[in-house]
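Handout, page 2. Input:
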Amino acid sequence: MIIVLKPGCTPEQVKDFTNTLTNEYSIKVNTWVGTQSTVLGLIGDTSAIDIDYISAQDFVESVKRVQEPYKKSNRKFHPDDTVITLPDGQKIGGGGLALIAGPCSVESKEQICDIARRVKAAGAQFLRGGAFKPRTSPYAFQGLKAEGLELLKEAKKETGLPIVTEIMSANHIDMFLENGVDIIQVGARNMQNFDLLKELGKVKTPILLKRGLSSTIEELLMSAEYILAGGNEQVILCERGIRTYETYTRNTLDISAIPILKKLSHLPVVVDPSHAGGIAWLVEPLALAAVAAGADGLIIEVHNNPAKALSDGAQSLTPDQFDKAAEHLRAAAKAFGRNVE
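Output:
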């Protein structure tokens, strides 16, 4: 249930009303104070609450029941967009276009530092790189693991770019935090690893949550709900393509998911055109389409020598290709009124 209070409602009235609701009913009340009004989100069994009684309060503007199972990620509970702001001031959401770029896998100090320098020069604000790699084949390169995190930290120290990297297990959370990971990525295969999501709900680090290979939009939002319900409100949704009947591309980028997610949820939406298409020459057109559809950011794979990459070389751009793509993406973003430097 959502209760919208009138603009003139005082903090004391909000507090007293909230206490009355929690004392009389077995519910939890989330309070969101916006620029125009205050919204109370009632979570739990609200069937016994009399809407007419609530509406009769002189400081209540409107009351409505929410049918969707996701509450904290629901825009009805949180009308304004959530903006993820890192300590260094970098943002995802809020009208800009965040560029996250780097290799699929961290392979060496020279490789990750060289790519970090190049993508930063091209305009990327974040460095992506896999230290732990989930692979379909048990014989494929699985990443450098802890050493990979150390190398990412070296690249961050040299360039100042915040780190985005994927976590595989809740047992690795402390290791990620100790190594200064700025945004923890949950991969598509772990989108419904609910034990992991619960643990990530206990940290304050932003979480980039990728949509599962065959998951619905509601299932993605419900996975985000696990993190939000744990107390971590810094969640970024990521559309990375879903499995369809088409075999030409690695996955099918669901462009429609971007405006739908923006309508249903207040959380920022990032798009991964690299994993969606699986082909390097498809990355830029898919990224441009994502910008036009309203994505808050892009996460793009860049490798200094894709032909010899230890993973996902076919979909990786070279630094020179990323230079051109980033220029075109910024131009497109400006054309659509985005705040791009």
